[in-house]
Amino acid sequence: MPAPQFALPVQYIRQIVEQVKRSNVPLPASFLRIRWDALPADEFQILDMDAFVQAIQDAIDATGDSAFGLLVGERMRINSHGMLGFAAMNCATLAEAIGVIEQYFLTRTRLVKVRQQTVGPDVHFKFEDALPLGRVRQPVQEAIVLTIKNLYDHITAGSAPIPYVSWNFAPPPHAELVREKFGCEMRYGQSWCGFAFPVSALHQPLSMADPTTLRQAIQACQREMHGMSAEPAWAAKLARVLLERQDAFPSLEAAAQLFNLTPRTLHRRLLEEGTSYRDVLDEVRHKLALEHLQAGKLTIQEIAYQLGYTDTANFRRAFIRWQAISPAAYQAGVNGTLNAP
User: Fold this and answer.
1) Which pLDDT score is estimated for 55?
2) Burial letters 130-152, b for 16+ CB under 10 A, else e
3) Does the pLDDT of residue 181 top 60, yes or no?
4) Could you tell me which residues come within 8 angstroms of residue 331 by beta carbon, excluding any fewer than 6 positions away?
5) With bands split at pLDDT 50, 70 and 90, how would you rate the model's confidence at 243?
6) What is the pLDDT of residue 63?
7) What does the pLDDT look like over 318-332, one tens digit per residue?
8) Using one digit for the tens of pLDDT, what is the confidence trace for 12-21?
9) Average pLDDT, the chain
10) Residue 117 zone, left/alpha/beta (φ > 0; ψ -120 to 50; rest)
11) How crowded is residue 312: how many other Cβ atoms within 10 Å of its Cβ?
12) Are the C-beta atoms of 118 and 199 separated by less than 8 Å?
């Protein structure tokens, strides 16, 4: 089975190259083979997953620095995130900013996917592997989580400090440097990767909010979602189809027909990206459930029906799996209101 391909912003790739150069070592042969020393002017570069993993591992071996990924993440500034960062900065509330990052994270990288989960008084902002990272999982996670944590700190202006970061691997040799760069408690050997922040911070106003600029940035993110590469991820294509037809989600067979594929071929292509029709539908339902509950215009029974659940109890069980609390409790905690079940 061929390795999956994905798009990565040239801005990110340049930071990886520059970090190698800062160590005063020659660029590894793998960098030269995929011409990372002579990047095109395009905003995104299509990469083969195996070649990417090899290049990152070669960079770590060449520099002899286990903290390579962490240092790449530190180098990325807010403008490294393009329109996604710009949109997040101009949101009215943290809840809106987190929602924007969730929805449009694909415009920056398909290596991981992000989602929020409410657990007691905290929101867990989770980073989950979307492609097989293998031996470079730790440096990639450190780079991505640090750069998004820095974006979070920027848009909240220190008003909602992150109490801890969770890692699903053992402490690395540079664990003390990780703690220093993140500036909060590190928890290793956990079941999830990401950071926590208080639920109470979700609806406090953000000082840089600008609705006009936000609308323009969102439109740009939407254009990027449609045109960031010649071959967008099949999971993204399927999610878009499901969102466009959310009044009656098409089955795998119906979706495959829309793509002029057999159901078996669509299933295989999703499998190559580490996902499935069921997983993509689950993510779309999760996203829409959060939007409906935050809007507060529908009852929980109506939301369940809108999402294709014939039984409200099934929707409730799914929501508890997503967020670790019931839809009624989520709505009460986030909006201060409780719709009838």
Assistant:
1) 92
2) bbebeebbbbbbbbbbbbbbbbb
3) yes
4) 293, 294, 296, 300, 337, 338, 339
5) confident
6) 95
7) 999 988 889 998 888
8) 888 899 999 9
9) 87
10) beta
11) 17
12) yes
Report the distance separating Cα 247 and Cα 100, nearest Å: 22
H, E, C per residue of the chain = CCCCEEEEEHHHHHHHHHHHHHCCCCCCHHHHHCCCCCCCCCCEEEEEHHHHHHHHHHHHHHHCCCCHHHHHHHHCCHHHHHHHHHHHHCCCEHHHHHHHHHHHHHHCCCCEEEEEEEECCEEEEEEEECCCCHHHHHHHHHHHHHHHHHHHHHHHCCCCCCCEEECCCCCCCCHHHHHHHHCCEEECCCCCCEEEEEHHHCCCECCCCCHHHHHHHHHHHHHHHHHCCCCCCHHHHHHHHHHHCCCCCCCHHHHHHHCCCCHHHHHHHHHHCCCCHHHHHHHHHHHHHHHHHHHCCCCHHHHHHHCCCCCHHHHHHHHHHHHCCCHHHHHHHHHCCCCCC
pLDDT, tens only, 22-62: 999 998 988 877 766 566 555 677 778 888 999 999 999 99
Tokens of 300: 């929980």
Out of 83-87, 164-168, 239-243, give the one with best mean pLDDT. 164-168
Q: Are strands 44-48 and 112-119 parallel, antiparallel or unpaired?
A: unpaired
Residue 195 CA to residue 218 CA, distance in Å, equals: 24
Question: Strand pairing of 185-187 and 164-166?
Answer: parallel
Domain boundary assignment for the chain: 5-70, 78-201, 233-335
Q: Can you tell me the distance from the alpha carbon of 55 to that of 31, in angstroms, rounded to the nearest whole number?
A: 6
| Tokens 């740009």 belong to residue | 220
- Residue with the bigger pLDDT between 40 and 267: it is 267
CATH fold for domain 233-335: Arc Repressor Mutant, subunit A (1.10.10)
Residue 49 structure tokens: 């997953």
Separation of alpha carbons 272 and 131, rounded Å: 9
Q: Tell me the residue type at 73.
A: G
Q: Rounded to whole angstroms, how far apart are CA atoms 254 and 18?
A: 46
Q: 191 pLDDT exceeds 90?
A: yes
Which pLDDT value is given to residue 3? 62
